[in-house]
Write a structure and sequence with these properties.
141 residues, Nucleotidyltransferase, domain 5, five-stranded mixed β-sheet, two-stranded antiparallel ribbon, 7 strands, RNaseH_sf, RNaseH-like_sf, RNase_H-like_EbsB-rel, RNase H type-1 domain-containing protein
Length: 141
């Protein structure tokens, strides 16, 4: 698999061994719960980072979405972690208490679910856990 990294000065093409990952389709949350899909973005050379999330109800209907520019992220995993933290704060403020949060950063969700540790996001994980403690139900997948 080829992927391209680009900035205003040059373009680099890298060869990467393809990783076979099973396709995971979006599924509705359990009845009475909402699902939040969250993602962060990070541009290495520009130090730009952003966050985005969308909330859907147990029928799959759109409820709310949001995005923000992140000024504190210094890596892709930090951008994903901060995106998740921003999403948790937003969903709490909107009154959602039974939540499933989904994202594509396996390392982040492994850290949240205490399957691994990543020192780059340790403090953010502590904040995420603090927020998670006040929800009626929260699942990170």
């Amino acid at each position: 698999m080829d992927y391209v990294m680009s900035n205003s000065r040059d373009t680099q093409v890298h060869q990467e061994t393809p990783v076979t990952t099973p396709i995971r389709r979006w599924t509705k949350p359990e009845q009475g719960k909402v699902k939040v899909n969250v993602d962060g973005s990070f541009v290495i050379h520009g130090r730009y980072a952003g966050a985005g999330w969308v909330i859907r109800d147990d029928q799959g209907a759109y409820c709310l979405s949001g995005s923000s520019r992140l000024t504190q992220a210094s890596s892709p995993i930090q951008a994903d972690a901060l995106a998740l933290l921003h999403a948790i704060e937003a969903i709490w403020c909107r009154g959602y208490r039974n939540v499933t949060i989904e994202g594509d950063c396996k390392a982040l969700f492994d850290s949240i679910n205490l399957r691994s540790r990543d020192i780059r996001i340790e403090n953010i994980i502590v904040n995420i856990h603090s927020w998670a403690d006040i929800f009626s139900h929260i699942l990170f997948s």
